[in-house]
Amino acid sequence: MLSQVRLEGKRVLLGVTGSIAAYKACEVARLFIKAGAEVRVVMSESAKRFVTPLSFEALTNAPVLHESTESWANENNHIALGEWADVMVIAPATANTLNKMASGIADNLLLQTALAFDKPIVVAPAANTRMIEHPATVANLKRLALGRVEIVSPQTKLLACGTEGNGAMAEPATVFASTLKHLLAREYWRHRRVVVTGGGTIEKIDEVRYLSNFSSGKMAEALVTALYSAGADVCYVCTYEPKAIPPVHVIQVQSAQEMQDYTADALRVAKKGVLLKPDFHNDLEAPKLVQKTPWLFMAAAVGDYRPAHPQNGKLKKEALGERWSLEMVQNPDILASLDKTGIKTLAFKAEMDPKNALSNARKALDSKGADAVALNILKDSESFGTADNALTLVHPGGQIDLPRTNKTALAFALIEALERL
Questions:
Q1: 124-149: per-residue pLDDT in tens?
Q2: Catalytic one among 26, 161, 235, 238?
Q3: What burial letters (b/e) apply to 208-233, b meaning 16+ CB within 10 Å?
Q4: What are the C-alpha distances in Å from 349 to residues 127, 300, 420?
Q5: Gap between the Cα atoms of 29 and 24, Å rounded
């Protein structure tokens, strides 16, 4: 879903420091360019030992700022580029760069650019484990995080030095995703807690068999991406391990009962609001509690029934015989049973009867106690897992038709429409 995000008109300044992970910065630049953003690059002199400026010039079709190219006759200087960009992304960011940034040291062109930059900065650390976990680096990362700097946590994996540990730069897609909320935030969703459910529930028959459905979770992932990008604090309750979503809090479940329990827990947390820490300019101020009405997006395909007696071990077909009757019991209606006091809810309804689909969606407004219903009319099982879709947003005051487009664009259109309800 990240590959469908559009950033036309947005400007990104990419800083590259002297780490073996500098080659990953090429992919970071490519992701922003593919999304439609304008990208400019500033490099430290050490970074040029790993990747040449020519590589970034070829990718961005723009001159690269470094010590030999800074000019005060045009915008290729550390002040003008900072004024031009909407966000600065430093990937990779060495331990040396991070520690200097935290102390306001600006002894190279990249650090001068960062010091003069008065908008959000996203940094992706990359360093040897002992360097990234040194008390000075740990303290300075916390100090940076108190300001307008967002830290994209490094990975634990095999490092270039041959040891395995913390310090590998986050994947380019994660760096890209972490930047979206600084480019696409909407005031309605900013600092609003949202719970999204996604995927088809899994009901165990025995240890090797289960009942499920054709839901791919793609629409839910698109919603997670759009909501995170809009600035929401998102909790994603899903039935699979998501791979292409922004860095949100994920709770993985299987059955309808587990989804009901964890969704209820997530909503209890959501009702507490978002606690914003003061930045380092106002460290004497108390943390600020932002309380906006939470939203629940019930996008999961919850199975209507489950086996009455799930078995341990594996049922043998020899013992079952030629015919096997599986006793089923009804699952709870999660959305109808949840305590929706103090929250807003969006139900998703899939229908295969175009004639009665709209009336069924209107009935669901009352039966599920939802504020709105996203109606999805399916043709057959092949309608699941597609890259695009169309929805009708049904609400007490009428309906809004959202035309067919890719699911991420549809998710952005959906959350924008919900702002007006």
A1: 999 999 899 999 999 999 999 887 79
A2: 161
A3: eebbebebbbbbbbbbbbbbbbbbbb
A4: 48, 10, 21
A5: 9
**156 has a pLDDT exceeding 90:** no
For the CA atoms of the chain, what is the radius of gyration? 25
Asked if the model's pLDDT at residue 165 lies above 80, the reply is no
Residue 161 designated active-site: yes
Long-range contact set of residues 317-326: C-beta below 8 Å, sequence gap at least 24: 326/205
Fold classification of 8-182 is: Rossmann fold (3.40.50)
Query: Which pLDDT band, with edges at 50, 70 and 90, does 383 fall under?
Result: low
d(Cα 249, Cα 268) in Å, to the nearest integer?
15
Sorted by where each begins, the domain ranges of the chain are: 8-182, 186-419
Q: Class assignment of domain 186-419?
A: alpha beta
Residues contacting residue 190 through CB under 8 Å, at least 6 positions apart:
230, 231, 232
Same fold: 8-182 with 186-419: yes
